[in-house]
Each structure stands twice: as C-alpha cells, then as structure tokens.
Amino acid sequence: MHRKESGKTKTDMVDSVHARHLLHSMIRIRRLEEKCAELYSAMKIRGFLHLYDGEEAVAVGVLEALTGDDAVVATYREHGHALIRGIGMGAILAEMYGKQDGCSRGRGGSMHLFDGKARFYGGNAIVGGGLPMAVGLALADKMQQRSRVTCCFFGDGAVAEGEFHESMNLAALWHLPVLFVCENNLYAMGTALKYSQAVVDLATKAASYGVAAAAVDGMDVLAVEKAAKEAAEVVRGSGKPFFFECRTYRFRAHSMYDPELYRSKAEVEEWKGRCPIATFAGKMKDQGTVGDGDIEKIEQDVAREIDEAVAFAEASPWESLEDLTRFVYSERRAP
Amino acid sequence: MHRKESGKTKTDMVDSVHARHLLHSMIRIRRLEEKCAELYSAMKIRGFLHLYDGEEAVAVGVLEALTGDDAVVATYREHGHALIRGIGMGAILAEMYGKQDGCSRGRGGSMHLFDGKARFYGGNAIVGGGLPMAVGLALADKMQQRSRVTCCFFGDGAVAEGEFHESMNLAALWHLPVLFVCENNLYAMGTALKYSQAVVDLATKAASYGVAAAAVDGMDVLAVEKAAKEAAEVVRGSGKPFFFECRTYRFRAHSMYDPELYRSKAEVEEWKGRCPIATFAGKMKDQGTVGDGDIEKIEQDVAREIDEAVAFAEASPWESLEDLTRFVYSERRAP
Amino acid sequence: MTNSDKGLHKLTYREAVREAIREAMHKDERVFLMGEDVGRYGGCFAVSKGLLEEFGSERIRDTPLSESGFVGAGIGAALGGMRPIVEVMTVNFSLLAADQILNTAAVYLYMSGGQFNVPLVIRMATGGGRQLAAQHSRSLEGWYAHIPGIKVVCPATLEDARGMLWTALQDPDPVLIFENAGLYNMEGTVTATAGPVDIDRARVCRAGKDITIISYSASLHKSIEAAAILAKEGIEAEVIDLRSLRPLDEQTFLNSVAASHRALIVDEGCRSGSIAAEIAARIMENVFYELDAPVARLCSVEVPMPYAGHLEQAVLPQVDQIVNLVRKMVGADG
Amino acid sequence: MTNSDKGLHKLTYREAVREAIREAMHKDERVFLMGEDVGRYGGCFAVSKGLLEEFGSERIRDTPLSESGFVGAGIGAALGGMRPIVEVMTVNFSLLAADQILNTAAVYLYMSGGQFNVPLVIRMATGGGRQLAAQHSRSLEGWYAHIPGIKVVCPATLEDARGMLWTALQDPDPVLIFENAGLYNMEGTVTATAGPVDIDRARVCRAGKDITIISYSASLHKSIEAAAILAKEGIEAEVIDLRSLRPLDEQTFLNSVAASHRALIVDEGCRSGSIAAEIAARIMENVFYELDAPVARLCSVEVPMPYAGHLEQAVLPQVDQIVNLVRKMVGADG
Ligand SMILES: Cc1ncc(C[n+]2csc(CCOP(=O)(O)OP(=O)(O)O)c2C)c(N)n1
Ligand SMILES: Cc1ncc(C[n+]2csc(CCOP(=O)(O)OP(=O)(O)O)c2C)c(N)n1
Ligand SMILES: [Mg+2]
Ligand SMILES: [Mg+2]
Q: Does position D333 have pLDDT exceeding 80, yes or no?
C-alpha cells in the first residue's frame, strides 16, 4: 500500500495506516471544534470556549510521542489534547454541556477537562499555572524511579509569566523529565508575541536554564511528530527536561468574545493557507498514501462519532443539586 | 600627589582624593556593620539584621556611577547602600533602634531603610520584590521624558524568583533605563548558587531578554566602579536596561541567627583574604596613592561619625503610641 | 464620542468605566492604563475599547502576562510620579500579584515612616455567574478588604462606575476597584456632570423600617429586587450599598440597623471569613441591644465555583432566597 | 536521637515539629520535605536541622527562591503519588504562591469532578512579635481559612505540633499548617506515644462558666494566662483552642457560649475580616438568644506591622487587655 518515492525526505515516508491515523486524529479535533462553536451559538455550551482550529498538528504530533503511562498537563485550549489522549468525545461534550457524565462531572466545563485514567491533568486556565505542576509530576516520577515523561503544553503568552522561569529552572536544576511544549501561535489573546517578549525566538529561552531545545513548524504534523519523538527520547533517555517550541497559528478568535481587532484578515487567511489538515491531506494524496475514499471515510466516521457524542451529552443527566458540595473535599480519609 | 606609574592598567590610575574617598566609603560601611553587630548583641537592635561585610566594593563602586537624581532600590541587606546614598548614619542607626528619628521613623528597622530625598526606595525584604518597582520607576522616568537611571540591587537568590524574569522582560521590552545589579555572593541564606540555578553564570541570563550584561569582580572597588560607570552610561545613553553582575562574598552569616552550616570556614577565610578594603588599601599604599596616615585619619573620622550616630540614636525619642496608626494611609487627599 | 454636554446620559456600566478612564486621561497626563490586552485587543471586557486609538500605546499599555511584574511596575510608576491605572483582567489572576499588592503597595507608606505613598489604582473584574468555573469566578473583594494600607471599593451603580475612578486617582494611597463582570452590560443613565464621588460613605439606596439589607456590587441589585417584592407584601426593607469595603463606613449601616432592629447581609463572597462576617460582628459589637433577631448572612456556598449553570446559580445568593430569609426574619417576632 | 520509648518526653515546639517530620519520613517513604533552606542551612527556624544528614538531599530538598514554582511542584508531586511537605518559610512569602494554593491546590478535586485529590501539606511560620516589621510579620491563617478546598490548622500546643502533621499527611486534600514562630522555643512534654491527633475538633483547654475565650495558636497562651489571672478574681473563663480554622468546629464553641453566655475571641490577625469576625457571626447566628452581652473581639490593630518593639506590642493582643475586657464584660450585667 505504502509507496516509497525516491527523493522524498525521511519525514515524508509515512505508511498509509499511520497517515490515515494522523489525518483522522486531526480531523476529529477540527470537527469537534466546529461542533463546539455551533453548540455555543445554540447556547448548549456556555462560559469561555477556546478553540484549537489550526493547531491540530501540535497536539496530534506531540501526543504520538507519548505512551499511556506518561502524563499530560494542558491549558484551557485543550479539547484536542483531551480527545487525542483518549477521553471520549461524549465525555468531553457532556462536560461542556455541564452534565453529570462529563469528564469532570460538569464542574469544569470547556477549560477544565480531566481524566485520571488517561493521566490527563487538565484543563488549567490560569496561564502558566500548569507548569509547576508538571515539574512536580516529573519529580514524583523521579523520586519513585519511574521512567515516565510529563508533557506540559502552554502558549507563547505563558512564557512571560514568572512561573515559566521558575519551572524551567527547577526542572533543569533537578533533572526532571518534563517535555515543555510551547504552542506558539503568535498571540496571547490580542497581544502579539512581539509585544510580550523582548526576544521573540522562544526556543532560545531554554539556553539560560541549560535545557535542550528545538523549534518546529507546528503546521506540519509529520515534522511535529518526528521532532516530538526525538525530544521525548531525549527526556526519557536523560531524565532531563526539553523545551519544544511548535510554531503554529489559531485560525479562530481567542475565545467566543474576541472581535479580533489585533490582527488582519489577510494574516489569518495566509495562515489558513497552511492548514495542517489540508496540507497534510494534500501531500498524502499527491503521494498516493491516502485516497479520496480514505478521507471520505474518515469524515464519515468522525461525523458519526460527533453525532453520538452530542446524543450522549444531550442524554446525560444534570448533576443533582444535592451533590453541589461534593468534591470540595475528598470523601475518604486514608490516601 | 597622584603618581602615575607606567605599566599600570587604567583602573589602577586613581587619584589620591578619589582613592581616599572610596576607602572612606567602604570603611564607613564596614565599621557601621561592626557596630550594628555589637548593638545587636547589646539588644539595642532587634529583629533580623543582615550585614554587608565583604561586599562593600559593590555598593560603593556602583553608587559612584549614579547621580543624585537617579533612584536606588535595594534589599534588606542595605545599610551600606543607604549610607553611601547619603542617608545619615544617625538616621540609619536610630531606625535600627526603632526610634522616631530613624529614617523610617522606627517603623522599618534594619530591613526597611528609606529616604525620599536620596531617592532611596528601600529596604525591600521580599526577595525579588523590588525588581518590578524598579521597572516602574524607570517607566515613570521614560513617560515623563526624564533621563534618569533606576538602579536595582538584588542577590543571586532573587534570580530564581519569577519576578526577576518578569522584570527583565518588561524592562527590555519597553526599553526602560534600569541598571539591574546582581550582588552575587554565591549564597542565598544557606543555599549555594549551584543548588538554586541550573546555570550558575548569571550574566548569561540577560541574553534571553536581549539585555546587555557584564560581570565584574565585586571585590575590586575600582573594577566595580569602572564597569558600573560604563553600564550606567549604556543605560543613560540607550534608555535600555543593563544587567550587571558583581561577584562577591559575604564574610558574615546571612543574619544573626545563621549557624553557617552550609559553608566551610576555609572557604570563608579564603574570601576574607580578598577583602575589598584591605586589598584596595594595600594596593593604594603600594602605589603610594594613600599613606598610613590617610587611613588612620579615615578610621578616626569614621569612629567619630559612629559615636555621634550612636549618641543620636540613643537620644532620639520613641514614637508615641498615639501615632501607631499614622501612615497606614496618607494624611492628605490630593496627591 | 460622548454626549457629556447634554443633561442625562444613557450608557452601560462598561461605558461608564470607559468614560471615567477617558476623562482621567484627558484631565491628568500622569494617568495611564496598563494591563493585559487593554490596548490592541480592546480590553478583555471591552472596557478600554477605542482608547488605544485615542491615547496611543504608551498610555494604553498592553502588558505581557506578568501580573506580579506589571502590578509591581505600577507601584514603581506611582512612586515615580505617574498615576497608573493597572488593570488586572480578573481578580483570579491578581493572586499572582498578591505579593506586590500586600507586601509592597499596602505597606510602603507605613514602612517608610510616611515618606513613600503609592497613588496606584488597580482595577479588576470580579464575581461569578457566567459559567467560567473555579479559576475564573472568584469574588475576593471582601478578602482583600482584610488588608490595612489598601482601600477596596466596589462600584455597583453607573454613577459609581463613572465617579469612583477619579476619586481613587486623587487618593494618595493604593485603591483597588472591583468591577463585577456581570454588571458591564447594565444600562442606565448618569448625569452629564457625573464626577468624582465620595468613596468613604455607604449609601442608603432604599429606605425602609422593617429590616436593613446590607450589600454591594452585583448582589446589591438582587437586594433591591428582593426589597421591591417584599414591599408588595408590606415589608419595608432598607437597602444599603456599602460601596467601599475598606474603609468600611459602619456608621451608615449601624444607624440603619439601630432603627430597623434587623439586618441581613448579602454578599457573593464565600461565607466563612467574608466581609459579611465582619459586618455582622460590627453590628453585634455596636448595636447589640437594638437587635430583635440575630443578624443573618446570605453568601455564596463554600465551593470552588462549578461550571454547570444550575450548580453555579445554586452557589450564588438569589433574589428568592433574600425574600424568604427576610420574610422569616421579620415574621420571627415582628 | 529521641527517647520515644520512655514515657514522658521533654522538648520544644520546634523539636516536636521536627520529630513529627522524622517520624513521617520513616513511616512513609512517599513523604519528603521541600522548601527554601530546609536542608543545608538547617531550616530557617532550625526546625529541620539534622534531617538532611538523616534522609539525604532528595528527601530533604532545598529549593531555589521560587515559591510559586515549588509550591506548584508540591501539588504535582502529590498528584504523582508522593506525600510532600512543602515548607514555605513564612506566610508572608506564601503570597508569591497564592495562585498555586488557591487556583490549583484548592480547586483541583472539585474541578476534576472528584478525580484528582491533592494530598499536599504546606507548613508555614506565621505571626508577629519578633520585630521583623511589615513584610515579615503577617498572621494570615485566618485569611486563608476563607478559601474552600483547603484545610487550615494551627497547632498551639506541643501535642498538636507533634501530632497534626501526620494527620495532615493522611488527609487526601491540601492542608496548610501554620506554626507561630513565637512558639518554636516553647518547652513542654509530650507523651512518647504522641501520635496523630484529630484536627477537626476544637479543644476546651480550661473549663469555666463565666465567659468563653476562643483563641488559637500564640494567642491561646495569652488567653490561658489571662484566665489564670481572672480565676484569682473569681472569674472563671472557659478557654477554647480552635486548632483548625477550616473546617471550623463551631459546635465546641457554640456549646460553650450557650453555657457561659459571653464570648471573647482573641486573634492575632488584623481585626477587619478576621476569623474572629466569622466566629462572632456564627455565635450570633446560632446562640443569639443565649448571649448576655455582645461577643467581643481582641485582634491586632490594623496597621502594617511596625518594627519598633513598643509599637509592635501595641499592635498585638496582650494578656492585660484580655483581662480587662473580660472584667468589663462579666461585670457588665453579671
Ligand atoms: C494568569 C492569567 N492571566 C490572564 C489570563 C487571561 N487569559 C486567558 S488566555 C490568555 C492568553 C494566553 O495566551 P497563550 O499563552 O499564548 O495561549 P493561547 O491562548 O494563545 O493558546 C489570557 C491573557 C489567565 N487566564 N491567566
Ligand atoms: C520571597 C522571599 N522568600 C524567602 C525569603 C527569606 N530570605 C530572606 S533573604 C534570603 C536569601 C536571599 O539571598 P540573595 O538573594 O542571594 O541575597 P543575599 O542575602 O545573599 O544578599 C531568603 C531566602 C524572603 N525574604 N523573601
Ligand atoms: Mg498564544
Ligand atoms: Mg546571595
């Protein structure tokens, strides 16, 4: 099935099964986000909603580099990460509905998806707030002699927070296996990177902590995957942190309230031209690795998955008011 | 008077008046600190007391680079800075006594010396806490088109705080005239630099903010003065920040409570051999720039100054209890 | 842009805050606004929309995500002779700057023996009710009011949204202004001459002899609504808007309670250790013998704020709860 | 090092905390201590002196000055299966970690719908009285007690200093332990078997029928001293040690006040919005009709802490003030 063309670089040599898998993953995210936007308009989803369109190659590529034992810490723009990490779409949508079958039992919403079994530590909506946690998860692994990676996603905006600095230093100083993944989409809300960083080449930040670093085109899923696997190997092999910058772009507004005054339509269109899904699909089709039929099937599967997820969310019951104060504290004593 | 010897480097070419001035300044600090230690044992001074012995060349050298218009932000180890900046020794000691004539009216103590006229903004005892303030003072200068420098002292320990990172970035991003002076005495309380920083060459931190930097032997007052003047010129000329690391050592314990378990006597002795006062005095004597008589006179002057300061502090009244709540808020409304 | 030369002036709370900022910027060139996304984005809640175009990026200053850094820079700028308005997007994020607020801004004047006052205004959005969950829904204005050295004000009305800013800027000491985000869309009118207001005094919004309802910010409006319902039943509630939580103008509510003999405090903060507790304690300390019933508190249920709408509404004080509580209290021995 | 096989055991509060840490480290290898200068320096207040030698630098972990970073790392380590004891040198510096404590530790279990509990213990020194001035003398335990999702305990006695740590470590949720630095040198005895204590219940330290004095931490000892003086005058004060400020065991003090009909709360926190206000409010809400006099509070004067000794002592509650207040209250209509 998989045709190897001469002259292709190594990253391009991907077999059809894997290509379809990557495409499927990215399309699942994209369609889910589209559905979320729709459900937001329908007022089924409320609160803040931060969509990931355009950045799919980052979550998909990076998460390919992890095993089930590894931990993931993400931000409020985490639907994609949660989904690819294995949280069911139904549980994700039910969460955004605020329903009992939501992956956070309706208490978290879009910004706070969690899953213990997937070692998915949220869904953190304080910018930079997840970084120290990732350091601690890695510290626990180190102290318990477990060889696991903690992968921490954060935005370009988070780099300005003091917690970025403290976390990088701690992870480097203590030799902790953290894969720091900076999703550099060039904006923190409406603040372009150049207005938030004196030095905009973020990967260079790692040097002052003695941390290995790499930057990658975050619109190219194969490039992300390859570099992430290398980075994860460094972390796994050395037990030390790695700073991994993915250069990407969000196609949509920051959240549903954002009138996007801070960037031009032309800029957005230009980046949309680099859509990670379309680009990858196009390339794979050119190579003959996937066909139109494959893509059609993926779309159908995803459409069905989404329909089922919506139905699941719709059908899920509301948490009883009697349980309002449940989980403020744990129900049992002995840890 | 001032003999220029051939073969001397430029920093060694200092005239006698200036040499005596520097020596006088450093000796004033040293003798004041010794008196403080004595008064602490006599329980005239209470609370925390952080002495500066061994680091005199830093405050003296750096403050030579400032004008009266510039601002100074310092830490809790700031007696020397306050003194050299022009706060009277009497007002400083009275402050440590907790008396009304203290430079902070007895409300601050050793860690919180202040003086409006000297533009001496404390006396800040939250490690790293003064850095954002320095950024703001410089911002005010910039916005009001004043060409002044804000000089901010902080320790090696402060570099690990998030506020260091945020402040460096803000100053660099906004082009603010801050002279960041890192007093690297190799320890933060009992934590050696290597246990607090993944990369111990602190001056390299500046690169990730695009900030100019220099490191200097902080035990050599002439070297500090020269480099500080150059640094201050860069700040003044460019309106941009500068990171200036002074490598020094504190001869005494961190505070009066510290049993110094974390470093060897031998290490301390070795550094004491590099005493900035003895070294400089020796060199100046060798060169014939100052004589034994000069030094004797300085010591006498300083001894008298200290006696007068102690007498002043002793004689100063206690703040009345009726004024306990004064200065929680300002007494007037219109700013 | 404004119609300030005409008599009454219709606008939203958001616009009232914006006009206050504009006016202050025009009146005093030392004033500037700094915070995350105040400029190019147009303000997280659109409060500062248009101001960048009017005043430029030096005075409408977008900051990086560095709460401690830019709040501290605000302190420094205030010390350096400017009159900064620092916007912390929401009170939740102010926790990253808690050290600067408490350990520097609040203590600088005192520690320096009266030498260095900090004329800094910090504005923050506060409050729950918009399904933003635990990390975005705190009401911490009462909590901050515990700290000596700062002032804490809570504009509930358009007049106050319009007027408190200038008063705060005239204050030589740090003032925290809490704007409940749920109020930004509230519409109303202010007089064209709306100007500085006294922020030291509470205000009796509605007179009544049967009970005193003490509130502020968003819950003030629920209290007023409840009072209207109660009035139809013949229960006359006096409603007080605290306006400032620090200093707390106790005289106004003590006088009222001394006359009505009953008090209910409505507060969106979590109950334990709330400003409502402080008010209850002061009432007891000062007019205990005037009380016909124990002072009651209606506060938020003590949970991290849940996302689901029905759960969130169950956390926050509601009009019907106020009505029921008052009915019970007044009925008790009235 | 210890004589724990003998019956009674003489030691200081500092040693009691140290023994608690040692024991926990021996009993459970997931336990480790992390904080500034806990290791090589020997602990800022010498609490952890000797532990580095005994347990090594992995488990007695010196941290850089990065409060937010290492408190957050404590949260992560707890989530990762460890049982960290994070030492924040003093409560003043905890403000740098306020975001991690409030916005992560306190809400994680709830936000995750019960999935992720955070078994983290944070120890901090608190309190004034040692002439350390405004940035080093805060008493914020009552302030933290406002926050749902965390527990706040204040060991006042050697038993509690010895016992509360293990109980806190057994708790699946974040527990903040506040050690008043003025108590570290306090000497006393504990039984060799001193072990975990119940941290959910207040304790009646001294029985008395005329008034209830409610206190905790350092001011408990002042209250007990005052009660002894009052006893000589025939006034029998019941003294209650709250021990835990969140959850607050109200039943113990409500029962006492219902019997004594008078209450005084002694608290080193600043008065406005203090835990003392909360207690006063609860007393009113629950046993109003049992009260013979308004509940009184003796708190710290609301100033940033001054350095000068005489000023500082004037800020803090004092024994003679307690005595005088009680005399007045009991005399009032007793
Ligand atoms: C500490 C903090 N400050 C401010 C905010 C409000 N806020 C939410 S997202 C955001 C921008 C973050 O940008 P970035 O880190 O680049 O992530 P992106 O949204 O681009 O994925 C801001 C300012 C917040 N949530 N937390
Ligand atoms: C935020 C904060 N954390 C902890 C402390 C306690 N503390 C006071 S000084 C100090 C060490 C600071 O070291 P460094 O910055 O190198 O300055 P040095 O004392 O060596 O001059 C520490 C940990 C503090 N004052 N502030
Ligand atoms: Mg971004
Ligand atoms: Mg140092």
A: no
The count of residues in chain D is 334
- On whether any CB of chain A is under 8 Å from the CB of C50, the answer is no
Among residues C327, B126, B214, the alpha carbon closest in space to that of D98 is found at: B126
pLDDT band at D332 (very low <50, low <70, confident <90, very high): low
Could you tell me where in chain D the CATH 3.40.50.970 domains are found?
2-191
Architecture of the domain spanning C2-191:
3-Layer(aba) Sandwich (3.40)
H helices present in C184-334, as ranges: 217-232, 250-260, 275-287, 309-315, 319-333
Mean pLDDT for C57-61 is 98
Q: Which CATH architecture has domain C203-330?
A: 3-Layer(aba) Sandwich (3.40)
Backbone angles phi, psi at C289, to 5 degrees: -75, -5
Question: What is the spatial distance between Cα C279 and Cα C285, in angstroms, rounded to a whole number?
Answer: 10
Average pLDDT of the residues in D303-314: 98
Please state whether the peptide bond connecting residue A335 to the residue before it is cis, i.e. omega within 30 degrees of 0.
Answer: no
Half-sphere exposure of D175 (CA within 13 A, CB side): 27
Cβ neighbours around C210 below 10 Å, total = 18
* Nearest residue (CA) to ligand 2, atom 12: B188
DSSP result, A102-151: STTTTSS-TT---BTTTTEEEEE-STTTHHHHHHHHHHHHHHTT----EE
Up-side HSE of residue D132: CA atoms within 13 Å toward CB?
A: 20
- In ligand 1, the atom with minimum distance to the C-alpha of A156 is 16
- Residue B45 touches partner C, C-beta closer than 8 Å: no
Contacts of A334 in chain D (CB under 8 A): 170, 172
CA proximity to D301, closest of D278, D270, D273: D270
Residue A335: its pLDDT value, please?
44
Please report all neighbours of B, defined by 3+ CB atom pairs within 8 A.
A, C, D
A contact residues 63-122, partner D, Cβ 8 Å cutoff: 71, 102-108, 112, 114-116, 121-122
Q: Which residues of D are catalytic?
A: 67, 136
B3-315: CATH, from 1.10.10.10, 3.40.50.970, 3.90.76.10, 2.60.40.3250: 3.40.50.970
Instruction: Using a CB–CB cutoff of 8 Å, tell me whether B129 touches chain C.
Output: yes
Residue A141 Cα distances to A71, B204, D38, angstroms: 10, 31, 22
With beta carbons less than 8 A apart as the criterion, state whether B172 and B154 touch: no
Of the candidates B193, B231, B221, the residue with the CA atom closest to the CA atom of residue B84:
B221
| Alpha carbon of C57: minimum distance to chain B alpha carbons (Å) | 11
Q: Which residues of B touch D133 (CB under 8 A)?
A: 47, 107-109, 111-112, 125
Domain span(s) for CATH 3.40.50.920 in chain C:
203-330
8 A C-beta contact, residue D122 and residue D77: no
| Residue reference for tokens 């079994």 | A117
List the helix and strand counts (H, then E) for chain A. 11, 8
Give pLDDT tens digits for D196-253.
Answer: 788 889 999 999 999 999 999 999 999 999 999 999 999 999 999 999 999 999 999 9
Q: What is the ipTM of this complex?
A: 0.97
Task: Please report which confidence band the pLDDT of residue A8 belongs to, taking 50, 70 and 90 as the band edges.
Answer: very low
Report d(CA B224, CA B64) in Å as an integer.
9
Q: Torsion over CA of B136, B140, B143 and B144, rounded to 10 degrees?
A: -170
Would you list the DSSP string of B156-178? TGGGGSHHHHHHHHHHHHTT--E
- The burial class, CB within 10 Å (0-12 / 13-18 / 19+), for D157 is buried
- Of C156, C130, C134, the C-alpha closest to C267 is C156
CB contact at 8 A, A219 and A189: no
Instruction: Calculate how close chain D gets to C43, using CA atoms only, in Å.
Output: 23
Cis preceding linkage at D247, omega within 30: yes
